[in-house]
Amino acid sequence: MKRILTIAAAILTLSTVAVSTARAGEGWLTDFEKAKKQAKAEKKLILADFSGSDWCGWCIRLDKEVLSKKEFKEYAKKHLVLLLLDFPRGKKQTAAIKKQNAELAKKYGIRGFPTILILKPDGTVVGKLAYLAPEVLDRRETTPSADLFAVGLLLFEMLAGQALQQSASPQ
Q: What own/partner pairs with CB < 8 Å and gap ≥ 24 does 56-62 have?
C-alpha cells in the first residue's frame, strides 16, 4: 500500500511540474530584465504572474481556466509580455531565479498567490489583481467562461483606467 501511494504521489508531482514547466515555455518569460527589455522594444505592458504553480490550487485553476486558453494567448501575444514569477515547492529553479522572484515579491508587496501585476516596461505598477470570479462572492458555482470574463474585465479596467460600465449616480 505504501508503495502504491508513493508511486501515485510521484506521478502527481511529475505531472504538475510538467504543466508548470510547459507554461513557462509557451511565451512566458522568467527573467524580469528580459521582460522589461522586450516590453520596451515592443511597446507593450508586462503581465507578471506571481504563482505557486505546483501547489497553489487557485494558481493552477487560473492557469487552466484562463491563462492557457486560446483567447487569452491571442490577446497576450498582441498586447502583453508575459512574465511568470513562480514559487514552486516541487519544481527546481536556479538560485538566480529564486532570488529574483523573492526580491520582486518583496518589492511589490505580494502577500498571496496568485497575484497578477500589470507593469510598464520600467517596472512601474499599472494595476494589480488577485484571482476571484464574481460568482464566488455570491457563493455560486464558477465556470471557465465566467473566470475568463472576470480576468478580462479586470485587465480592461487596469489598462483603460476606468470601469467598463459606469453606474449613474442618484440625484
A: 56/113, 56/114, 58/113, 58/114, 58/131, 59/113, 59/114, 59/131, 60/16, 60/19, 61/131, 61/147, 62/114, 62/131, 62/147, 62/151
